[in-house]
Amino acid sequence: MNTDLTGKTIAVLGGTGPQGRGLARRFATAGLSVVIGSRGAEKAEKVAAELAEATGGAVTGAANADAAAAGDVVLVVVPWDGHKELLTELKPVLEGKIVVDCVNPLGFDKQGPFALQVEEGSATQQAAAILTESTVVGAFHNVSAVLLEDPEVESIDCDVLVLGDEREATDLVQALADTVPGMRGVYGGRRRNAHQVEAFTANLIAMNKRYKAHAGVRVTDV
């Protein structure tokens, strides 16, 4: 399988939020070309300039549609409530691309975080239902934004469960995770199994609150 990321541009839609910004930082530090997308180009350009200066990497910013067009691999790291609308809008731009859905459909109340019911089963499955001409993979759901954004943290010690139905695409996204020191991409099953991986983020948030930590996932014996 060709998992060479050389010459590929990684677009991060929603790249001005903590998770997207953190992932963009790590990929830029790893030497990848990164385009940050946001609703407004100006905000994306500002964050991109800050990250380019901080990492010495190739980071640019653009409106989400332009970032999506520029990316060979496109990460979706937007809030759940804008997920369906954005992907529907960008469907023509994302045709033929690998789209990595990183969105966790979560709710919060007095008892803390909980997984939301999604009609299609998960955010990843919703993305696949909308983006019928793209190859959709689920990944990067359980990685702490706090650690990703902290320049003092050199190694992100966690596994990234990668979910998808097309082996070439999941291999490539595993390789993308592997570019970050300490991080490892692990195949986690087909798209239909994305729900529990997305939902597990609620458990991690609860753990982090209880233990004042930034918990991630490690898979044993693989």
Automatic annotation (TrEMBL):
Keywords from UniProt, A to Z, are: Oxidoreductase
> Where are its TM segments located?
none
- Which Gene Ontology CC terms are recorded? plasma membrane
Keyword Oxidoreductase on this protein?
yes
Q: Does the keyword Oxidoreductase apply?
A: yes
Superkingdom assignment: Bacteria
Which InterPro entries does the entry link to?
NAD(P)-bd_dom_sf, NpdG, P5C_Rdtase_cat_N, STEAP_metalloreductase
What is the protein named? NADPH-dependent F420 reductase
Q: What is the organism of origin for this protein?
A: Nocardioides daphniae
Top-down, what is the taxonomic lineage of the species of origin?
Answer: Bacteria, Bacillati, Actinomycetota, Actinomycetes, Propionibacteriales
| Name of encoding gene | npdG
